[in-house]
Design a protein that fits this description.
With 249 residues, the chain is mostly helical. It has one domain. The protein has nine helices and two strands. Strands 1-2 form a two-stranded antiparallel ribbon.
């Protein structure tokens, strides 16, 4: 298996492919997104273990969305139930990957706290006295900045790893290695890809808030249900371009 390299402009093509796939089956993909969010919500409300369980559940659910988007893209029959197929594909290896990812996140938090001079286990948000609003404390801004800087390389290690384990049948550490190599060889395209998403998810909502604040609360929920499958479909296009037949299922 080899990770192909693409020019930066390919990142824009991946995004366009994501929207094209969504237009083929919008209702079905939205239904799958709702199912994914509800599953994560159920995991999160479990006392004590909720956040950790959600981190594990998200991996096979992501594989399921990958398979679902692939079926739509190929013109094959697709149902929202395909979302759970990822739980039947090398689940023990995905659990190991989840443990590695959590360990990496804890390490990033510790390093960010060390570099920022704060407690890495401190809460990122300070809830106001009225209990309704929250703001980032000035003391934690350097911590968040370092967390972002250190967290991006970590995400490169795990971006393609779940689908490599589930579909290419590689071991967790090998999947992490191939994911890092793929991201490095396509760094320009990936930067363009996420820059385009930043415009869609950050810049455009900011403009909307400045023009008509009331519209944001009305448009945010449906926009999330559209953007989620578009993102997964874009990711499918990127992964299949980079790894080729190894991920075509």
């Amino acid at each position: 298996m080899q990770a192909r390299s693409f020019p930066p402009a390919q990142g824009w093509q991946w995004l366009k492919t994501g929207f094209a796939v969504w237009r083929r089956a919008p209702l079905m993909l939205i239904a799958a997104s709702i199912t994914l969010l509800m599953t994560l919500f159920v995991a999160l409300i479990i006392p004590l273990l909720g956040q950790f369980l959600a981190s594990f559940v998200l991996l096979p659910l992501g594989v399921g969305m990958f398979l679902l988007c692939g079926a739509v893209r190929a013109g094959q029959p697709a149902q929202p139930g395909m979302l759970f197929r990822g739980f039947r594909l090398h689940l023990p290896e995905q659990v190991v990957l989840g443990l590695l990812r959590i360990a990496g996140q804890l390490l990033v938090m510790w390093l960010a706290g060390l570099l920022a001079g704060v407690d890495g286990s401190a809460p990122l948000l300070q809830v106001a006295e009225d209990g309704q609003s929250a703001s980032i404390t000035p003391e934690l801004q350097p911590f968040m900045l370092w967390g972002l800087v250190l967290g991006l390389p970590l995400e490169m290690l795990f971006w393609f790893s779940p689908v490599l384990i589930a579909l290419a049948e590689v071991k967790p550490m090998k999947a992490v290695f191939f994911s890092a190599v793929a991201c490095w060889r396509n760094l320009g395209a990936i930067c363009v890809f996420f820059a385009a998403w930043a415009v869609i998810c950050v810049a455009l909502p900011a403009m909307l808030v400045s023009l008509a604040p009331a519209l944001l609360s009305l448009l945010a929920p449906p926009a999330l249900l559209i953007m989620m499958p578009v993102f997964y479909a874009s990711f499918h296009a990127a992964a299949c371009d980079i790894f080729g037949e190894a991920l075509r299922a």
